[in-house]
Specification:
Blueprint (H helix, E strand, L loop, with lengths): L3 H8 L3 H8 L7 H14 L4 H8 L6 E5 L10 H17 L3 E5 L8 H10 L4 E5 L6 H9 L3 E5 L8 E5 L2 H14 L6 E6 L5 H17 L2 E6 L4 H11 L5 E4 L2 H13 L6 E2 L6 H5 L4 E5 L1 H16 L6 E3 L2 E5 L2 H4 L3
Helix pairs in contact: 1-2, 1-3, 4-6, 5-13, 8-9, 10-11
């Protein structure tokens, strides 16, 4: 087994310097840090705390990584459905799961993230709504140090699978249904999610295809899945448009109430199919996703990876519908 002394010797530095690099101390030059990190990777050095955990052979422990940054202002129904599905499948497969929030890893280096996860005896990850900002998570997927399943990000490799709906087709279908139910479509406001993400780009492609078919002016603004931002965007552009298409139900709710307060009628559609839509008592088209099923499918794909199968992308069905109050109240 490679020791810290081996790393220090090959890097030409003191053992204490290696320790400082591994613990992310600031009093180390960037040149020395890069040199030590390179040797650590070349030799495959594992810190003692991680090595002890690995030696216990307690594998197939799954880390669920959830991103809550865009939705912290309300009870997150989607994440709860995701987690419920994962917990049910974990129980079925008798595999232990540990839940993490992506924000826990924001201040860590790539090596610190991997060492932390390994110290928790985790060798499998299910990653929900991977953000473009999570560079270390992307690197983990690229390096294939863990078995991974991504929910709503279509990255695959030998040890990585992904599960999602067809976001292009779903956005196309819900917007087209809304257009066809209304006679006059010449200016459309599209309130997208976060800029630069895979899902956002695929849905934008769908809106541009519809623009070519219906010949309308398309105003694109980013609401970051935030109700308040969607509300402000709608207030600003309401007089210039006659349809509002939103990339989430929460933003659709913000948009429709802004229009109501302005005493304007504009068709609005959302995306996700959350229960909250039923409580608005304002009928809007949406894409209803089964997040529980999606999470269970992610666990099934993880099981396939553990059994030696190669990563793949799996599509889950969706439904374009309106959600009414009577559909969501508890019976």
């Amino acid at each position: 087994m490679v020791s810290i002394n081996d790393v220090a010797k090959k890097a030409g530095v003191a053992k204490s310097t290696v320790s400082k690099v591994l613990n992310n101390y600031s009093l180390v030059s960037e040149e020395t840090r890069l040199k030590v990190e390179k040797v650590v990777e070349e030799l495959g050095y594992v810190p003692n705390s991680v090595a002890v955990s690995l030696s216990k052979k307690e594998f197939n422990r799954v880390g669920l990584i959830v991103d809550i940054r865009h939705n912290s202002e309300f009870v997150e129904e989607i994440n709860m459905q995701h987690l419920t599905g994962a917990f049910e499948k974990a129980k079925e497969y008798r595999i232990e799961v540990v839940t993490f929030f992506s924000s826990q890893f924001e201040e860590m280096s790539y090596k610190e993230v991997t060492n932390f996860l390994k110290s928790q005896r985790i060798n499998c990850l299910i990653i929900y709504n991977l953000s473009i900002e999570n560079k270390n998570i992307y690197k983990i997927i690229e390096k294939q140090e863990f078995f991974c399943v991504l929910v709503d990000s279509p990255i695959t490799n030998v040890r990585t699978s992904s599960v999602s709906i067809d976001h292009f087709q779903a956005q196309y279908d819900v917007a087209k249904k809304t257009f066809d139910e209304n006679d006059y479509i010449n200016n459309v406001l599209y309130i997208a999610g976060g800029a630069g993400g895979y899902i956002t780009e695929r849905r934008l492609e769908a809106m541009k295809k519809l623009q070519g078919e219906y010949h309308f002016e398309l105003i694109i603004k980013y609401g970051d899945f935030n109700e308040y931002k969607a509300r402000k965007i709608t207030q600003k552009y309401a007089s210039k448009i006659n349809v509002v298409v939103c990339a989430s139900d929460l933003m659709a709710i913000g948009a429709v109430f802004a229009l109501t307060e302005m005493d304007l009628f504009r068709p609005v559609c959302g995306f996700d199919g959350i229960r909250l839509m039923g409580y608005t008592q304002i009928e809007m088209n949406t894409v209803k996703q089964d997040f529980n099923r999606k999470s269970k499918q992610a666990f099934d794909e993880l099981k396939k990876l553990l059994n030696g199968e190669t990563g793949r992308h799996v599509l889950i069905p969706y439904e374009v519908c309106k959600i009414n109050y009577m559909d969501v109240i508890q019976k």
